[in-house]
Design goal:
Structural class: mainly alpha
Radius of gyration: 20 Å
Strand content: under 5%
CATH topology: Growth Hormone, Chain: A
Distance between the termini: 44 Å
Number of strands: 0
Number of domains: 1
CATH superfamily: MFS general substrate transporter like domains
Largest sheet: none
CATH class: Mainly Alpha
Order of helices and strands: HHHHHHHHHHHHH
Number of helices: 13
CATH architecture: Up-down Bundle
Shape: globular
Length: about 400
């Protein structure tokens, strides 16, 4: 069982790394190819929208075995990554920027649609392998892969910047290909026993989980805005070249990734805080990190450290809080909602972020800090209400 869960964890983690690795490179890549800042945001957003649609579509398909369906989805998704990278590598001197943009747009839409099937089917596997006693642990593992991949992906982009802007896409495709082979070899085909499908009876507006879901969506929204606009921001603020900006961002995001992992270890092993307290600390550090990037970009590594701590606390806070707020038979519904948050943030964040950046380079970060302040106040009021009810 452990090796099967490990393979599924790595598939989801690598998938998330591949989709998130695109965010930091699209800004510099778009400028190299003569595309506008807003067009670069559209390329990320269309993948996020199709990710949501694809997840809903692929989870319900029964025209082939789940094993071959997941493997086929992974191979098609890998192909879109490689084709996009090849097109970007050989399109520097393209005559028509409009046709280039629409070619990229279609590729990203296809990539998002097929990528949506990876976490959806992986979740179905985890649910099928787990029992009522181990389901929460399995969903926690699934959530960890989602969250960690969304931080590690951008860090990988920066670390590979010296090899070329598209190198992370080739690397992600190779990793996914390797994992697809391991999946086909080591995961047995399911027998003719339908994996338990639980109707999603839980509403995202349920007052027990709605605040946690809003915070998760806000975090995904803010991260997408930062990842898509930070390349422009560093170049415009510091006058860096494309390679210098990408390397700085990559190192900074790598620091953030390390802090995400360390902060979650500290919380789980040493701090026994309620999720709402964890959220308050996390939102505070995210806000400080964003303010630092806005006001003190020359101390970017410190800013990314604060941001990483905040992301780690907030990720664990909203996912654990939502899971603890519901009963065992509602865990799958919560896991589905949490998995959808990142797709939602990937859809709305990049377009809004690049549109705000086009208006004023300080607006994306100021706007995120404002939203975090509002949600933080709502969390404080919710904590106060809980104390009153408990009394």
């Amino acid at each position: 069982m452990k090796y099967r869960l490990s393979i599924m964890f790595l598939i989801v983690l690598t998938g998330m790394i591949s989709i998130a690795a695109f965010n930091p490179i699209i800004g510099p890549l778009a400028r190299n190819l003569g595309l506008s800042d807003f067009q670069s945001g559209c390329l990320v957003s269309v993948a996020g929208l199709c990710w949501l649609l694809g997840g809903y579509f692929w989870e319900k398909q029964t025209f082939m075995s789940r094993k071959w369906l997941l493997a086929s989805i992974m191979f098609v998704y890998m192909a879109t990554l490689v084709i996009f990278a090849l097109l970007a590598d050989y399109a520097v001197h393209a005559a028509s920027k409009t046709s280039l943009f629409w070619s990229f747009f279609i590729l990203r839409a296809i990539a998002g649609f097929f990528f949506g099937g990876i976490p959806a089917l992986a979740q179905a596997y985890v649910m099928g392998w787990s029992t009522k006693e181990t389901r929460t642990q399995g969903m926690a593992l699934f959530g960890a892969a989602n969250g960690l991949g969304f931080v590690v992906g951008p860090a990988m982009s920066g670390g590979m910047a010296s090899l070329g802007l598209t190198s992370p896409m080739y690397a992600a495709a190779i990793l996914l290909f390797t994992l697809a082979i391991l999946f086909l070899v080591f995961i047995p085909k399911e027998r003719n026993i339908e994996i338990e499908r639980q109707a999603i009876s839980l509403s995202p507006n349920d007052k027990r989980i709605s605040l946690y879901l809003w915070i998760g969506l806000l975090l995904s929204f803010a991260l997408n805005i930062v990842q898509v606009t930070i390349g422009f921001f560093v170049q415009d603020s510091l006058g860096y070249s494309t390679q210098q900006a990408t390397q700085l961002i990559g190192t900074g995001l790598a620091i953030s990734g390390v802090m995400v992992v360390l902060s979650q270890i500290v919380i789980s092993k040493y701090l026994k805080w309620h999720p709402k307290k964890v959220l308050l600390v996390g939102l505070l550090f995210v806000a400080l990190g964003l303010l630092g990037l806005l006001l003190f970009i020359r101390f970017a590594y410190v800013d990314f450290t604060f941001l990483g701590i905040g992301i780690g606390f907030t990720l664990l806070g909203y996912s654990a809080g939502a899971s603890m707020a519901v009963q065992d038979h509602e865990q799958r519904s919560v896991a589905s909602f949490i998995a959808a948050l990142q797709g939602g943030g990937s859809f709305i964040g990049p377009v809004i972020g690049t549109a705000l950046y086009t208006a004023n380079m300080a607006l994306p970060y100021s706007f995120c800090v404002l939203l975090i302040g509002i949600v933080g106040i709502a969390n404080l009021k919710n904590r106060s209400a809980d104390r009153v009810e408990s009394c």
